[in-house]
Hints:
- With 352 residues, the chain is of the alpha/beta class.
- It folds into 2 domains: 2-146 and 310-346, Alpha-Beta Complex (Quinone Oxidoreductase, Chain A, domain 1), CATH 3.90.180.10; 153-286, 3-Layer(aba) Sandwich (Rossmann fold).
- Helices cover 28% and strands 25% of the residues.
- A hairpin with a 7-residue loop joins strand 1 and strand 2.
- Helix 4 (147-159) packs across helix 5 (174-185), helix 4 packs across helix 10 (294-304) and helix 7 (220-227) packs parallel to helix 8 (243-252).
- The longest helix has 13 residues, at 147-159.
- It starts with a strand and ends in an 11-residue tail after the last strand.
Amino acid sequence: MRAIVKPSPGPGLEMADVPIPTAGPSDVLIQVKATSICGTDMHIRDWDPWAQTHVRAPLTVGHEMCGVVVDKGPTAEGPEIGDLVSVESHIVCGQCRFCRTGKGHLCENTQILGVHRDGVYAEYVAVPAINAWPDPPDMAYSIASLQENFGNAVHTVSVANISGRKVLVTGCGPVGVMAIAAARALGARAVYATDVSDYRLEMARKLGAEHTWNPRRDSVIELGMEATDGEGVDVLLEMSGAPSAIQEGFSLLKPGGEAALLGLSSGPIPFDLDDNIVFKGATVHGVIGRKLWDTWYEMRGLLRAGAVDLGSLVTHRLALDDFEKAFDLMASGECGKVVMFPDPDDADGPLS
């Protein structure tokens, strides 16, 4: 089968012919219908310090997807052959102290698809049946494929006290824009956003941001204090990993505020811990993955209720064979969510 692989340590990705995986005793084999690009995949393609530390090449990359179950192991329970499913990419052991206490997202033995084991940028993938999340049969493939990334946004928004609060989102890539939509749905009083891409700031406004600022031309701290009547924001949702955005976000965070950090910074960064956290009495949440399975049920509720509509976030659809164009598009910042289709006939909209 065709698969996008990281053949060895170093920048770049390749299309390769690899064996179709087989379903283990408790696994399902899924034919991939759609797969979307995440910021983590960009780190892996570029082979930055984070990727060098965490990724085990060679392997098939990618972790966001939906597909149809085509085979299952003899002890696999859950989805049946023919079911449409999305996939939770964090495969946990179920036995460690965190899994046993309802904190599976912190599992000591986590294996992430496309990071520690073969991922989903391929025609087929085998995963534990418990990691296959049932989707409505009529759900658009592009929307189903990005649910896991939406889960990152929902988890980030949910760890802080959002209702009635003033919220700043730093970084308006797709997950940042989804965080804006989720914050609005969960009752934020006002949402502000920063990004260096005007394209993405426009998306942020469409999804509910009250004010947006581009730090390349705007005085973010001055404008942020003006917008909040000199108070600063109650909650910072840091989605970019950019050192300058992190600093600006914490500068705008009011004393006693909360910060939830999802963005990966690629490597160590200078940071004034004393003034930004200690003397502010700030609460900081590090966010990894999705709470298993609380976040999935929460985002299902938001989607079913129509509180969040992800349709406008999918701006480009490409064939899997055009992955280099897809990754370059993501790097440009001139896009929302980019979805790839192993079989172009499965595309649920015009191919870019």
